Amino acid sequence: MITATANKIEAILYLKGKPLSLGEIAEYAACDRATVEEGIIELIDNYAHRDGALEVVETPAGYCLQLRSDYHELV
Description:
- It is a single chain.
- The protein is an alpha+beta fold.
- It has three helices and two strands; from the N terminus they run αααββ.
- It has helices spanning about 5-15, 20-30, 35-50; strands spanning about 55-60, 60-65.
- The protein has a two-stranded antiparallel ribbon.
- The longest helix has 16 residues, at about 35-50.
- The radius of gyration is 12 Å and the shape is globular.
- About 20% of the residues are buried.
- The mean pLDDT is about 95.
């Protein structure tokens, strides 16, 4: 089961639709960076075990919720 903080981070990543730094996520989520780091790790792990089209990844610009590469031809 995913924590409330991870759910909030997931919503933020979805709504912003662009990579965000840990600091930006912490500001939007109104929590500290350590809590965001834990939530991001939880989300990455959760999405890695789903058989779905989305994933949470770290990019050079920050963390984002994105379409898995297997589905890029749909875009």
